[in-house]
Structures are given as C-alpha cells and as structure tokens.
C-alpha cells in the first residue's frame, strides 16, 4: 500500500495537486485501509467497485486481497496514475497473458487488463437517481461490493441508489463524512434523521467500522470522517425504490410542514399516523405503510 510520501510523490511527479472541488482528500492511514478491506471480507475473484481511487492506495489493497476492481475516476490526472499503478502491479504479480484490449489498448492498459481491472473515466452517477451508463455496462448485473473513500458530493445519492435499487450490490464499505454517517444511523425525531436514514433502514443494516480524524487524510479535511458498512437485509423488501424516493423527497423536502398539509387532509392515513405529524416523526416502517397506500 502507498505511504503518504508515495502519494505526494506520485502527484508531484506529474505536477498535480489535490482538487478541493472534487473532494480529493486521500486516505493514507494504512491501518484504516486494511480495516475497511477486512470488514468487506474480500475474497479472490470478488468484483469490487471503487469510486474515486485517486492515486490507488485503496485499489492496491483490494488487488492484494485478490479483488477484480472496477474503478470510476472523474479526474484524468488521477486516472493516469491509477492505470500506471495497475501496470506495475500486474508486472510484479501476474504474467502478461493474451487479454482483451481496452480503452484503445496502450501497453499500460493491456497490463492492467491482466488484473481484470476496469477504469471508467467520468462520474459514477447519471444525475442523482441512476448509475452512469458506462458503470452499469461494466458491472453487467454481476454481484459486487462497493469499497471506497467516497467523494463527499457523490456519497449520499450513491449509497441510497445502491442500497435500494441494486440488489446485486452485496455491501458497501465506505469512508464518508461523519455528519453523513450520523444521518445514516439516525432515528426518528432526531435532527439528523432524513431520507438517507429511512432508505437505508428499510433496505439494509448499517454499522460503524471506525472514525477517521482529519490527520488520516492528505490534505487534511476540516471534518472528521467515518468508515461504515451498509449490508442488504434478507429477504429484500418489496417496496418500490422509486416510489420511496419520491415520497421521501416530498415529505422531507418540506420537513417542517405537517404531512396532512403535504399529502392533503382528505388522504386516509394508516393507524398510528396522524395528519399533524411531520416527516421527522415517522419511523421507517411508517414510511413503508404510507407507500403501501399508493401500492
């Protein structure tokens, strides 16, 4: 795995600097990286999605565990770094085989393909409610896990989308802002409770793995981060994810209003839910009951 000095050296050698607008804070604490990969229980041959690999510090830990990695990187400079690291890794670990060419088939990319490594240059999302077409094509319906130091801007929509609409996602093991982690596990009537809390509670179990102070990243962010696990519940709920998303947006988008004012006073509500209640007072199960009214 990469040390902090190696990360800085990889950037300096290409004249690159972390971009604040892309949320580029590189996790360099090797103990936390190992903890994330171990909690994800990666086995040789497992398909892993990594969003925002940066210089590839976590990517290399995934390769060491035997994962087949699909990485999505929006920054072209970082994409070149992680491709070059894939080449070095393949050179040292695997023979060069007759492998399919990818992305125009440069020598670096051919060696990377020997790892089963796929790099997608661009955003992981197509808007807030769909995975990018290139990512969907790369996954091709196969079971996978998300293991990533997530860019803060993509974290919430991506976690909700994978938890609710992609049953082939077997688990998410991610570094996110502690504030987002608090929302993830928040209960009704608390200030942090919202759409993320409800969506994940209905479709998955969440667990705190560790906190990551700013010193674990370079450059150090102004906030503490958390590493969390999100694993789907079985059997999978039958709730319509799109209908749930619409209901959550409707009610939490006006969270200070009474639900009777939002849904209409004539709406017949399930037992235990009154028109005077607000979204933050409803439990995840009560949101499911409201969904059933429309079903």
Q: How would you describe what is shown here?
A:
The chain contains 12 helices and 9 strands. It is α/β, with parallel strands linked by helices. The protein folds into 2 domains: 4-232, Vaccinia Virus protein VP39 (Rossmann fold), CATH 3.40.50; 241-294, Helicase, Ruva Protein, domain 3 (Orthogonal Bundle), CATH 1.10.8.100. The protein has a 7-stranded mixed beta sheet, with helices on both faces. It has a two-stranded antiparallel sheet with strand order 1-8. β2, α3 and β3 (68-73) form a beta-alpha-beta unit. The longest helix is centred in the first third of the chain and has 18 residues, at 76-93. The protein is elongated, with a radius of gyration of 21 Å. The termini are far apart. Residues 93-107 have low confidence and may be disordered.
Task: Briefly characterize the structure.
This protein has twelve helices and nine strands. It has 295 residues and is of the alpha/beta class. α9 crosses α12.
Keywords:
295 residues, alpha/beta, Rossmann fold, Helicase, Ruva Protein, domain 3, 2 domains, two-stranded antiparallel sheet, 12 helices, 9 strands, elongated
State the fourth-level CATH superfamily of the largest domain.
Answer: Vaccinia Virus protein VP39
- Strands ordered across the widest β-sheet: 4-3-2-5-6-9-7
Helix content: 25-40%
pLDDT < 50 runs, ≥5 residues: 93-107
The radius of gyration computed from the alpha-carbon positions, rounded to a whole number of angstroms, is 21 Å
| Bulk shape | elongated
Strand content: 15-25%
CATH class of the largest domain: Alpha Beta
